[in-house]
Amino acid sequence: MTAAQPAGVEIVEVGPRDGLQNESTLLPTATKVELVERAIAAGARRIEAASFVHPRLVPQMADAEAVMAAVPRRDDVAYSGLVLNRKGFDRALDTGLTEVNVVVVATDTFSERNQGVTTEEGLRTWEDVAARAHDAKIRPVATIAVAFGCPFEGAVSGDHVVQLARRIADSGPFELALADTIGVGVPTQVTELLGRVGEATGARLRCHFHNTRNTGYANAFAATTAGVSTLDSSIGGIGGCPFAPNATGNIATEDLEYLLSGMNIRTGLDLDQLSRTGTWIGEQLGKPEVPALLGRAGPFPPK
Q1: Helix/strand/coil (H, E, C) string of the chain?
Q2: Which residues participate in catalysis according to the annotation?
Q3: pTM (2 decimals)?
Q4: 122 domain residue, yes or no
Q5: Per-residue pLDDT tens over the stretch 169-198
């Protein structure tokens, strides 16, 4: 599947959830809310703000309800939350989220370590949560994790991912996201897998890339040329999966914005505000430098 360069790309800001969940510093609720507020001021209109998981497993997300109670409520801002099971969905339902994101892991080993279930059990959870979300008028989003490779089982077959995608599509996802959870994919893989999944499901596709091996931005570009118009990224490039060995950050929103805007692809984001926020969140986390490079190098041409 190939397509012309899109005029615009929608960015889902995942820093408040996927960004913070892998950081050792536990931030107070007020700081998390400020991160959301700063993201909105920078133009973000879809924000993954919380994860409704067991606080013992991911203590960084223990205050999910408090965060959602304090974030700004605007008609033009959609909030998403990660849920892994029915209990998580029930918690999320009471917080006024626009959408829920359910992760289905492509390999049993990673799924059992990450969520305590097999891939098949994860699929059944998705089917249950998707039905309940539709009933509640909440958008159900499914993410296929380790779609390009698993740290425990190695390469993941494209045929297997397509089979999972077909099963997920049967439950009517608002979006189907392919996640390179450990940052092993390359652009040719991205283009091929997106084409196959798109053809097999007809679903609205989204991508979630990590920059573990410095291919995240090339993969993001490949996704846009393959017709994907929604990408996840994290301000500052912070985060990663706490259950993935040697995990490093997500692709950084400010660096992604520099790439896309330089190609005349609109995102609605403000580069300067993103860069300042990336530096700020690094300070809150005790990091002299975040993975994002724009805050250090600055835009070009300089203003």
Answers
A1: CCCCCCCECEEEECHHHHHHHHCCCCCCHHHHHHHHHHHHHCCCCEEEEEEECCCCCCHHHCCHHHHHHHCCCCCCCEEEEEECCHHHHHHHHCCCCCEEEEEEECCHHHHHHHHCCCHHHHHHHHHHHHHHHHHCCCEEEEEEECCCCECCCECCCHHHHHHHHHHHHCCCCCEEEEEECCCCCCHHHHHHHHHHHHHHHCCCEEEEEECCCCCHHHHHHHHHHCCCCEEEEEHHHCCCCCCCCCCCCECEHHHHHHHHHHCCCECCCCHHHHHHHHHHHHHHCCCCCCCCCHHHHCCCCCC
A2: 241
A3: 0.96
A4: yes
A5: 999 999 999 999 999 999 999 999 999 999
